[in-house]
Structure formats: structure tokens, C-alpha cells
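Read as chain and fold; for instance:
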Amino acid sequence: MVTKTDTNLISVVIADHRHIEGVFKELLNPATPHPRRQRLLEHVIGELVRHATAEERYLYPLARELLVDGDEAVDRELAEHVEAEAVMRNLERLDVADPRFLPHLENLIRIIRHHVGEEERVLLPKLDRAGEDSQLRELGLKMLRSKETASTVPHPDATDQPSADHLVDTGAGYVNRLRDHLTRT
């Protein structure tokens, strides 16, 4: 988790990646009960859409601006976002007990791990070298704030009572509704 003093955009993006990977591990654990797995799925889909939207708003414009190959790199990253969201739309229609669930989940995880690997090996180090510290801190804070104000799904450990920040219902169409909500805010 990112602390208040560690708000560099690169650190914020990497912290998100680590959080999402932890949720993936629990989703893949056969001992995870189905009700919890369903909550974890809703949580990780929300996190992925929020993360992608924040990258598109803060990280990718900076890459296009600062990097010689920024346009090509960002276009590849955006294509992976589109691919991941298509798989998430399929997953949101499935119950975690459905035999089709695990292959779809494994496909999503494969796409995201590839995306994360590319970002962390190539894009983020280049941006870290090219960006000014103050600019990276400012964009990191903006990314954190945008994710905080866009909270739509409670953490899977939260109570079953809906919270005031539960703005978008989960279920079929969730990915599209969440992305629509995030791009309007």
C-alpha cells in the first residue's frame, strides 16, 4: 500500500499492481469459499477498471509527452486494457461456480500479468528517468485521489451492508457502468 509520503506516480502504479496480484492469488486458491470468491471478483474488477482509468488519465498522457516512443508504448498498453475489459465483461456474467469461470479468470490474470510486466520492465522505468520528481509526485497524488473518489465496490472483507460509496451496482454490465462513471468524474 502506498503511504502519504510515497506518492510518486510510479510507486502508486506499482502498489496497485501488487494489490491486484494479491487478490488474484486468493481468487485462484481452491480453498477460497465461493461467496468470498464472488466478492473478490467484484473487488478486483472494480480495482482493475479504476486502475486502468487512472492510468489513462495520468500515466499515459505523461508517457506520450515525455517518451520518444511514448505513442507506440501507450497504444500497446491501451490495447491490453481493451482486451482485459472484454474478458472482465465475460467474467461478470458468470457465477464463480460455473465451470467456465476458471478459464476466463486465468485468461484475465494472464493478460494483466503481461500488462504489468511490460509496464514495470519498460514503461515505468523510462518515465521514472524522464519525469521530474515534482511532476511524478503531483500526478501520483492525483491518481490516488481519483481512485479514492471513485470507490464503488466495498473491499471483500467489508460487511454485507452497502456503504455510502457503493455508487455502481455489480453484476452484468458492471465493467461498462463503472468505466462510464469513472470517465464522467
In short: The chain is about 70% helix and 0% strand.
